[in-house]
Design a protein that fits this description.
Layout: H1 5-17, H2 23-43, H3 49-58, H4 66-93, H5 96-115, H6 120-150, H7 157-162, H8 175-179, H9 183-186, H10 190-216, H11 219-235
Helix pairs in contact: 1-2, 2-3, 2-4, 5-10
Length: 242
């Protein structure tokens, strides 16, 4: 038997009350519970929805939805990396404009770093200032919007990936800070050291570019594609409750 819309909403409220924060993860768990409940009520017509739900929830053990939530988030993360980030990187890498941006960015950074190589303190302060600016930008743009989105009941884990540092691109943004103290150990040639540092700094700028202009700016379209493709396939029904 199919559950009514009221029962589906009750099911989602139940899942939410058990500390599942993301709406898309709730929907995926609700689909599992709905199938279990429907089977129980088909076998026993006298069984109430509440009793069937209680029996279905018992199967998740003392940890409740923790493991299944993590499993679904890992699957969504895999979709995000393969179908969103990899697609964005491939599309950008196929354009001449992208490589021109990288080349110009590298040459500019290399010239700045080279001109400051005699002033390592100034160079270090420069990287620190860039890191602080990046953090301010992150907290003002991404963090505040992320916080605002979380107030909405329809906030998804996909939203979290789009507007947070959960993206696999984010670690590339602080590569220069990680590599700068170790550059001298990679090569004895000062020019090569500067070239390597400029390379990692360029990667950092490109990561910021992809995160902001290709993910953050297009987040509504990406979210729509995620709902139309991944979620609709997993849930196997129209997404009236999204």
């Amino acid at each position: 038997m199919a559950l009514s819309k009221d029962k589906k909403e009750q099911l989602l409220d139940f899942i939410k009350s058990h500390y599942v924060d993301y709406h898309d993860v709730r929907l995926l768990i609700a689909k599992d519970l709905e199938e279990d409940i429907a089977k129980q009520m088909d076998k026993d017509e006298d069984l109430s929805f509440e009793e069937a739900l209680k029996q279905a929830y018992k199967k998740y053990g003392v940890i409740g939805f923790s493991d299944v939530s993590e499993d679904y988030m890992n699957k969504i993360n895999s979709y995000f990396n393969k179908k969103v980030i990899l697609k964005v990187v491939k599309n950008e890498a196929s354009t001449i404009r992208f490589w021109l941006i990288i080349t110009c960015c590298y040459l500019l950074i290399f010239s700045i770093i080279t001109s400051l190589k005699s002033f390592p303190l100034m160079l270090g302060i420069g990287f620190l200032i860039l890191a602080i600016i990046g953090l301010i930008f992150y907290f003002r743009k991404f963090h505040l919007e992320n916080k605002e989105l979380k107030k909405q009941d329809s906030y998804t884990y996909f939203d979290q990936l789009l507007v947070s540092n959960n993206s696999i691109l984010f670690p590339f943004t602080y590569l220069p800070l990680m590599m700068a103290p170790h550059i001298g150990r990679l090569t004895e040639n000062e020019n090569w050291s500067m070239a390597i540092l400029a390379f990692f700094t360029t990667i950092s700028f490109i990561a910021f570019y992809l995160i902001y202009f290709k993910l953050y700016k297009n987040r509504f379209q990406l979210l729509k594609e995620y709902k139309d493709n991944y979620l609709s396939e997993k849930l196997d029904h129209k997404l009236e409750l999204i």
